[in-house]
């Protein structure tokens, strides 16, 4: 698959923004993001992102939205980085459109064993029977290896229905991993605006996007 330079650059920006959000050494990570188009050029979406800390002992995945509390990092700075990451994903989608590629609705990025892989999906999220919570559960089951035995009845019903459903084709895209050492780290981030509006925990619960980043453009109903 031939990759235009502009798309390679978009992926490089995504990687840069991913690395900026990781405060410790890690072995692998998995990220999901969706982008949905609406009237008047408005877009909404969601993003969740987990990484596995590096270490001899097996460790559980860390939800990046727990990082500010875990590492005593200023939340406004950290969620500014999350917003920049989501914006770079939207730029990738815009560039794919510009290049005449089939337009994906959601993607999963995985980085492991020094390999960067993107899986593009083309599900119609606006007419899907699955809500955000169900998609989140299915994604974690597929990519984080959540044991089936640990699920409750409702969750098992969702997974069983998913396993029995017809899966739509996806496209896999791989690129070399850029040198993360050249990118700005969280501890060096300074002079970030303090007046940006981010989604509160209460608002996330109301929208049922638990452990999910909802871009400010979705809440404020503004163009990015």
Describe the 3D structure.
The chain is α+β, with helices and mostly antiparallel strands and about 220 residues long. The protein has a single domain (about 5-125, about 170-215), classed as Murine Class I Major Histocompatibility Complex, H2-DB, Chain A, domain 1. Helix content is about 35%, strand content about 20%. It is built from seven helices and six strands, in the order H-E-E-E-H-H-E-E-H-H-E-H-H. The protein has helices spanning about 5-20, 65-70, 75-100, 130-145, 155-165, 200-205, 215-220, and strands spanning about 25-35, 45-55, 60-65, 105-110, 115-120, 170-175. Helix 1 (about 5-20) packs antiparallel against helix 3 (about 75-100) and helix 4 (about 130-145) packs across helix 5. The two termini are about 30 Å apart. Residues about 180-210 and about 215-224 have low confidence and may be disordered.
Write out key terms for the chains shown.
alpha+beta, Murine Class I Major Histocompatibility Complex, H2-DB, Chain A, domain 1, 36% helix, globular, disordered C terminus
Summarize the structure.
The protein has 224 residues and is an alpha+beta fold. Helix content is 36%, strand content 20%.
What does the oligomeric state look like here? Answer: single chain
Spatial separation of the terminal alpha carbons: 30 Å
- CATH homologous superfamily title: BH3703-like domains
Name the CATH class.
Alpha Beta
Structural class based on helices, strands and sheet pairing: alpha+beta
Number of strands: 6
Largest β sheet strand count, sense and barrel closure: 6 strands, antiparallel
CATH topology: Murine Class I Major Histocompatibility Complex, H2-DB, Chain A, domain 1
Q: Strand-and-helix sequence, N→C? A: HEEEHHEEHHEHH
Q: What sort of overall outline do the alpha carbons produce when their principal axes are compared?
A: globular
Low-confidence stretches: 182-212, 216-224
Q: What is the typical, i.e. mean, pLDDT?
A: 81
Percent in helix? 25-40%
* Number of helical stretches of at least 4 residues: 7
* Radius of gyration over C-alpha positions, nearest whole angstrom: 17 Å
* Largest beta sheet: strand ordering: 3-2-1-4-5-6
Q: How many domain regions?
A: 1
């Amino acid at each position: 698959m031939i990759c235009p330079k502009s798309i390679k650059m978009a992926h490089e920006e995504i990687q840069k923004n991913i690395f900026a959000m990781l405060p410790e050494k890690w072995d692998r990570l998995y990220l999901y993001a969706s982008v949905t188009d609406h009237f008047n050029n408005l877009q909404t979406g969601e993003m969740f992102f987990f990484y596995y800390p590096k270490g001899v002992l097996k460790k559980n995945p860390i939800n990046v939205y727990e990082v500010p509390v875990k590492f005593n990092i200023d939340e406004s700075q950290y969620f500014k980085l999350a917003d920049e990451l989501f914006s770079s994903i939207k730029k990738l989608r815009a560039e794919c459109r510009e290049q005449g590629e089939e337009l994906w609705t959601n993607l999963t990025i995985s980085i492991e064993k020094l390999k960067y892989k993107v899986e593009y999906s083309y599900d119609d999220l606006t007419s899907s029977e699955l809500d955000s919570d169900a998609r989140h559960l299915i994604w974690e089951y597929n990519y984080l290896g959540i044991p089936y035995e640990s699920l409750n009845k409702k969750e098992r019903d969702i997974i069983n229905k998913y396993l029995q459903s017809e899966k739509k084709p996806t496209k896999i895209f791989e690129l070399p991993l850029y040198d993360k050492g050249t990118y700005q780290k969280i501890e060096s981030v300074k002079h970030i605006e303090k007046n940006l509006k981010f989604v509160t925990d209460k608002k996330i619960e109301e929208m049922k996007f638990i452990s999910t980043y909802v871009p400010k453009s979705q809440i404020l109903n503004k163009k990015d």
